[in-house]
Design a protein that fits this description.
With 257 residues, the chain is of the alpha/beta class. 37% of the residues lie in helices and 19% in strands. It has a single domain, classed as Rossmann fold (3-Layer(aba) Sandwich). A seven-stranded mixed sheet has the order 3-2-1-4-5-7-6, sandwiched between helices.
């Protein structure tokens, strides 16, 4: 039976089920905020993946990506290819939008959040997970030329040769303060922003990498104030409900009384 490299270290220091990693908290955010039966747009969905499967158990999923490989996503009810900026979708057509490890690849995050706000119905929610540029791994990725990122990223995580090469990254929305500003400027409201530091995924290549990365994880998880330097940002943004008409009706009723 094949085991992940250095799996004994992960089993020792990050035992399941006590350690929840970075995926389960993202699942929780989606399940707690996306209503049953929702029509959901998954942005950057790619081909078959666990997130689409999870969303399909909630309601109906439209998978959107720049890569035609999205048409192989059999968990989605509908698949669409787009230009990376403009969503080929009608206004107010979804109850929820979701993106998982996609926002870091967006060159124009202002347009991205505006498009999310446009396609969401009033009261709709956007759940997303993306890395934090203020983390050492992301700073390294940001500073490295893309060809070097291609050469080492999957090796450090000990991913096999069939794994997709990393897409180009821009990190133009990947600081907590910048993220909050983008959400607000798009007319959305940030309901929650959780900073998560899970097991050191980039430490699989060797124990020499694992131990200092584990020490970093222990430090940034030791105090809430150090959350700014954790690797994962899990956010929930909501489009305000359409209350203006209801408020006007209430005012008219009160005046009549």
């Amino acid at each position: 039976m094949n085991q992940e490299p250095n799996q004994h270290l992960y089993d020792k220091y990050y035992p399941k089920p006590a350690f929840r990693g970075g995926t389960l908290p993202f699942y929780d955010a989606c399940l707690e905020n996306i209503p049953k039966g929702a029509e959901t747009l998954e942005i950057g969905a790619g081909s078959a993946n666990e997130i689409t499967q999870m969303l399909a158990n909630i309601g109906t999923v439209t998978a959107l990506d720049i890569d035609p490989d999205v048409h192989n996503n059999t968990s989605a009810a509908k698949t669409l290819v787009f230009d990376g900026v403009k969503f080929p979708l009608l206004d107010q057509s979804f109850d929820a939008c979701v993106s998982n490890w996609a926002l870091e690849h967006v060159a124009d995050p202002i347009s991205h959040f505006r498009e999310v706000a446009r396609v969401l119905r009033p009261g709709g929610v956007y759940c997303f997970r993306t890395p934090n540029l203020l983390h050492y791994a992301m700073l390294g990725s940001y500073l490295l030329p893309h060809f070097l990122h291609l050469a080492i990223a999957n090796r450090l995580r000990k991913m096999d040769s069939s794994a997709h090469a990393p897409w180009p990254t821009y990190y133009r929305a990947n600081r907590p303060a910048r993220l909050k500003q983008l959400v607000m400027d798009a007319g959305l409201e940030l309901s929650s922003l959780a900073m998560v530091e899970p097991e050191p995924a980039y430490g699989r290549a060797s124990a020499a990498l694992f131990y200092p990365m584990m020490a970093y994880e222990r430090i940034v998880n030791s105090r809430p104030a150090l959350g700014t330097f954790r690797i994962i940002m899990i956010a929930v943004a909501r489009k305000p409900a359409a209350t203006s008409e209801r408020s006007a009706q209430e005012c008219t009723t009160n005046e009549a009384q």
